[in-house]
Amino acid sequence: MTMVHTLTPTADLRTDVDDVARLLTADGERVRDADLDPWISDIDADVVRDLYRDMVLVRRIDTEGIALQRQGQVGLWAPCQGQEAAQVGTARAFRADDFVFPSYREIGVNYVRGARPEDFTRAWRGEAHSSFNPYDVNTAVPQIIIGAQTLHAVGYAMGIQRDGTDQACGTYFGDGASSQGDVNEAMIFASSFRAPVVFVCSNNQYAISEPVTVQARFPIAGRAPGFGIPSLRIDGNDVLASLAAMRWALDHARSGKGPAFIEAVTYRMGPHTTSDDPTRYRDKDEVERWHRRDPIARVEAYLRSLGGFDDDFAAAVARDADELGAAVRAACLSMTSVEPLTILDRVYAEPHSGLEEQKAAFAAYLDGFESAAEGQGVGR
Q1: Do 268 and 104 meet the contact criterion of CB atoms below 8 Å apart?
Q2: Which of 22, 125, 272, 293 is catalytic?
């Protein structure tokens, strides 16, 4: 398998949502795809229910995170609403001993990999350098530097080769990151050394405020074959297609054939982060078109057609979502902030003069806030 669909120039890649591989339509109808079908032949209604539950719970974590940021409990949040299928579907294909390198938006990937309620807000709240111990869940902490995680993933995958195991790596990045040098360099090394790594490009249509058409006249999946990497362009709002594509890609990587590339065509329903105002660069009609392609709604429709969705199931999932949302909130609100100056305490194993100079400068900076507050009569 190389490319499933032809790569044709288009005036607007954001509206070109039919040139993708899919197994579920926007209305929840199961359709056939010769390349993807063999990879989900074992999937029954129970598994689909589990996928649905995962996506609903991920959306609840996302909703809670946005609310906590608006209430001043976390400094920033990168929403993932609309991208749950691409994240949950691909993440469910990994083995526990595989290693994953996400960006800052992969809430669903972190959830599937086993992140705990407190892990979703700790770093965004500024309470620690990282969200969790990577080796607890075989997942690197969310990467803020755009595209850097792809290099980390390839390096880890080359280490797997030297260990002689059949593990594989996965790395996630957005359409904007695909223009970064790091991503392209990572693909060169992965291809040259046949590293067992899967690149997942979540094409959510916007690199912050710039539409994907600014940087791509052709589908992004078409770039990978130029590096000697087979690729698939899938409907990223289709959880079954996401699962099938990742199973193919991981099998390809695990079997010694080298890296694989998936472009998941999806949509960021919310802002880039909570500091962003998406109404400045996209219109309501576009958002509404994508709302009708909601990844959770189509799985519900599919389950109803199978007789696998009823009021009891919906209520049980809603209860689980409420419990998880409450746990995320409680974990965040129970965190005790350390003194800001302690952020430098564990940078180096041993103290040195350069670090002491930085601590002194930071202390003076912090003192400046107290002086300003006293001058304005704050706290009197």
Answers
A1: no
A2: 272
Residue of 59, 92, 223, 268 marked catalytic: 268
**In the numeric block, which tokens belong to residue 5?**
């669909």
pLDDT tens column, 165-199? 999 999 999 999 999 999 999 999 999 999 999 99
223 is catalytic: no
Residue 303, amino acid? L
Separation of alpha carbons 101 and 109, rounded Å: 10
Known catalytic residue at 272: yes
CA distances from 150 to 3, 174, 315 (A): 22, 11, 39
Residue ranges in the chain assigned as alpha helix (H) = 45-70, 84-91, 107-113, 134-137, 148-163, 181-193, 239-254, 284-291, 295-306, 311-333, 353-375
Q: Which residues fall within 8 angstroms of residue 279, CB to CB, at 6 or more apart?
A: none
Closest CA to 314 of 86, 59, 56, 88: 56
**Single-letter amino acid, residue 30:** R
Query: Cα–chain-centroid distance for residue 149?
Result: 12
Is 111 annotated as catalytic? Answer: no
Q: Which residues pair with 30 in a beta bridge?
A: 24
Q: Which of the residues 30, 281, 304, 319 is marked catalytic?
A: 281
DSSP 115-164: --GGGGTTTTTTSSSSSS-HHHHTBPPPB-STTHHHHHHHHHHHHHHHHT
Taking residue 120's Cβ as centre, other Cβ atoms within 10 Å add up to: 28
Whole-angstrom distance between the N-terminal and C-terminal Cα of the chain?
A: 71
pLDDT in tens, 28-79: 999 999 999 999 999 999 999 999 999 999 999 999 999 999 999 999 999 9
**What span, in angstroms and rounded, lies between the C-alpha atoms of 322 and 20?**
34
Contact 167, 204 (CB under 8 A): no
